[in-house]
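Pasting as-is:
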Amino acid sequence: MSTFIISGNYSHNAIKGMMANPSDREAAVRSLVEGMGGKFISYYVTTGAHDFQLTVESDDTVSLMAALIVAGAGGGVTNMQTVQAFSSADFMAAQKKAGALAGTFKSAGQ
């Protein structure tokens, strides 16, 4: 499965709502991820540029995008960013492939 790290911010209205009616956001996110067929790995509330970060696994990127659309359409989150993460083993394999492929590529202007 592919690993994705998703970060974002809570909207002003969401924060007001969470103060008035606290809710377990991890449970809500877990339900959404598992509902789209993905594997929930972690959820953290963070400081800094983003309010939350979650890690999920999925081989169905269309379903992952659908879940992100649902989350964004609800109005509770903004500034969502999704990046694919690679294991050290994946990176090692990519380095080896790059070494083999490098001799077949000519950069522009050379």
